[in-house]
Write a structure and sequence with these properties.
Its EC number is 3.4.24.-. This protein has about 180 residues and is mostly helical. Helices cover about 55% and strands about 5% of the residues. It has one domain. The chain is built from 9 helices and 3 strands. The protein has a 3-stranded mixed beta sheet. The chain is globular. The model has no long low-confidence stretch (mean pLDDT about 90).
Length: about 180
């Protein structure tokens, strides 16, 4: 999957090599949660009982790898600072493919102007509420306060990858990112 390839390469480039047997865990999960990132162990948990299609698993892996990338490159206070969590959830919803037009149509949620941003905002709030015992108002406030900066943070993709084709292009761009400077 080009989304995952790019994130794994970017993490390695940032000094955080991912090992499949160490950093991924398949488990049965409660409720309708599909996955999670455990910052204490730097491990991505995939909920094998709630993922039934390869495309869904690819999105979950990408979403959680974005959290892992954020954990690698920034000093994220996952537990005490809800704004940090909100920022990573915004980035994950924005960059993982969670809010593509096809996914939104499948959820019977679609609109025209500004729908991608609305989807990202709603999914970030939902994710915060799923992992933290905070009020909906607290989650909404945190998302609203950091939305613009975090929505516009497109690292390591450099663009919002709306399709696998976009993700492949972003991966090629990432691989060539330092090529010009290396020739100087």
């Amino acid at each position: 999957d080009p989304y995952a390839q790019l994130l794994l390469e970017a993490m390695k480039h940032s000094g955080c090599t991912v090992f499949n047997d160490r950093h991924f865990s398949c488990e049965n999960c409660d409720g309708c949660v599909s996955g999670g990132f455990d910052s204490a162990t730097s491990q991505i948990v995939l909920c094998q009982n709630n993922i039934h299609q390869q495309s869904h698993m690819n999105r979950v892996v990408t979403h959680e790898l974005i959290h892992a990338f954020d954990h690698c490159r920034a000093h994220v206070d996952w537990y005490k600072n809800v704004k940090h969590l909100a920022c990573s959830e915004i980035r994950a919803a924005n960059l993982s493919g969670d809010c593509t037009l096809m996914n939104e149509i499948a959820r019977f949620k679609f609109g025209l102007k500004g729908h991608h941003q609305t989807c990202v905002r709603d999914r970030a709030i939902r994710s915060i509420l799923a992992v933290r015992k905070v009020s909906k108002e607290t989650a909404e406030k945190a998302v609203d306060e950091v939305f613009d900066a975090c929505f516009n943070d497109l690292e390591p993709f450099g663009r919002i990858p709306h399709s696998k084709k976009d993700a492949k292009r972003a991966y090629r761009d990432f691989q060539n990112r330092d090529r010009y400077n290396a020739n100087l």
